[in-house]
Amino acid sequence: MIKIADIEAALGRIKNTVHRTPVLTNSTVDKLAGRKLFFKAENLQKTGSFKARGALNAVSKLSAEVAAVCCDSSGNHGQALSWAAKSVGKICHVAVPRGAPAVKVSAIENYGGKVHFCEPNDTGREAKRRELVEKFGAEMIHPSQNLDVIAGQGTIGLELADHFEQPLDAIIIPVGGGGLISGIATALRANWPDVKIIAAEPEAVDDCAVSKKAGKLVVTEKSDTVCDGVRTNVGKNTWPLIQKLVDDVITVDDKAVAKAWKMIMERMKTVAEPTGALALAVAFSPAFNDLYPAQKYQRVGVILCGGNLDLSIVPRMLELADS
Amino acid sequence: MIKIADIEAALGRIKNTVHRTPVLTNSTVDKLAGRKLFFKAENLQKTGSFKARGALNAVSKLSAEVAAVCCDSSGNHGQALSWAAKSVGKICHVAVPRGAPAVKVSAIENYGGKVHFCEPNDTGREAKRRELVEKFGAEMIHPSQNLDVIAGQGTIGLELADHFEQPLDAIIIPVGGGGLISGIATALRANWPDVKIIAAEPEAVDDCAVSKKAGKLVVTEKSDTVCDGVRTNVGKNTWPLIQKLVDDVITVDDKAVAKAWKMIMERMKTVAEPTGALALAVAFSPAFNDLYPAQKYQRVGVILCGGNLDLSIVPRMLELADS
Predict the structure, then answer these.
(1) Which residues in chain B touch residue A83, judged by CB atoms under 8 angstroms apart?
(2) Topology, domain B67-136
(3) Could you list the active site residues of A?
(4) Phi, psi at residue A226, to the nearest 5°?
(5) Nearest chain A Cα to B27, which residue?
(6) How does pLDDT run along chain A (323 residues), one tens digit per residue?
(7) Residues of B belonging to the active site
(8) The whole model's pTM is what?
(9) Residues of A in contact with B307 (CB under 8 A)
(10) What is the fold, at CATH topology level, of the domain defined by B4-49+146-321?
């Protein structure tokens, strides 16, 4: 398990290269929520998501002999790892399922990553990953279970603890593989012992909520969701931290996410990908308001995790929001 | 004509109520432009556009006996004036052409403005405006020719002059009625005598470019453009300032605007309305690069004037950008 010292070391390693992202507020959104919401704007992070932090911390710790890294994420981690590897003079090989959107492929290439197409299924990805490790001597960097990645994401928690004079009452953090929330939770608990830490998860991928209720790591069946950034399971390195440090897991449906997304775009004028609106959707959910009433929990942090919005999905998001 | 002292007084009047908006930069956009671009982010201004500045300055100067103001703008000025009037305890009446989008009507109402529908033509608007003045004793606040509005918009120039230790080499400012550019130009010339001031105008509404060439105020025929924020003519109070202070007027077509808009959304992760991308489109135009080569004009300001994007037009903007 990572410790606060790992996160502090990570911050020292990455702080001159990643952005210390701003904390955004909006009076109209606050009025609607009946609380003061503080958005950690990781959509404005290098490569458009928090993934730049963990990726950079992980590649920075590799020895000079390791010339290459690899992963099989065609999403934000693939872009972040490509960018991070380039910034420390290493090569990043990315296994990308055949048929992935051209915009994702070119994003990886623009950040300097090498794209290797594979069959679009678990067997194909696994085989390609092994091939990349063997052929290029590449170090595989897992998007959420790599301990240095988790420590890197945790630097968000240190920045938040430093930003506020008084601890927040609660913080809402999206959960997919769990790297983001377990890192932030570790950093915040060390600074703010009493803060409530809430995981935000889409109904369609509710393994974290089910695991939390069961008291053990459970894999559930996934259905489709607009929150493509968290369409994955909590893993063995993040689960112990989530079990220990997270107070509640709250799920929301895609319509709630689309409504929150629209509010971020229209009111806050900052660009979020659908998953970036997940935590705000939870802030507006009946479950959150029952468990954490505004009278008692006035000051709430919201992690706006990414801004890599594919503009072609805007009509679908509007349709969902107004459905 | 307004003077620098009017703008300084305006800043004193409004600065505790409007945002001092951030100056955004983006390394990817800079690389593409071959210069350092500095975006004054008025999309993050109260009411989502710079119009809040001028409107608030104008209503703040009215005597206590004036209980109401009016205008016939259903766009950003109508929203800004509604907001400004409310913030000083006055009522704002807005003439809105029948058939205006429901989203604009509700935006005005949300800011506390009273909507009065009129026939969607010049005669209908003029008649309704007169009616509002007579019936409610409302003071008409013109969106671009009111001198206090011009002075209010000029506060952007003071903030820029204060923000940078060294003057910028050039600044690009959208022009419609000319309130924004004549205010900023007045403020900047007083602080930076040598800065090049460039007006950005859509090809489809090129009255400022034609006037500048002719050396006199000319009204041209308008055709359709995505830049709805500047679909209007320079007027008698702004023209003398433009003639005196603006170095060049550069026009761009809608495709160039759509490409710049996409860059702002995808790269900078900040929400712009189409007109908000007009100045960046000029920064990338061949005309600007011919007249103001990057070697000599390295540091360029860009006014990102508004962020009230109607999300339903995103598909049209993408189609234009990729056409």
Answers:
(1) none
(2) Rossmann fold (3.40.50)
(3) 51, 74
(4) -70, -15
(5) A46
(6) 899 999 999 999 999 999 999 999 999 999 999 999 999 999 999 999 999 999 999 999 999 999 999 999 889 999 999 999 999 999 999 999 888 888 888 999 999 999 999 998 888 988 999 999 999 999 999 999 999 999 999 999 999 999 999 999 999 999 999 999 999 999 999 999 999 999 999 999 999 999 999 999 999 988 999 999 999 999 999 999 999 999 999 999 999 999 999 999 999 999 999 999 999 999 999 999 999 999 999 999 999 999 999 999 999 999 999 99
(7) 51, 74
(8) 0.96
(9) 269
(10) Rossmann fold (3.40.50)
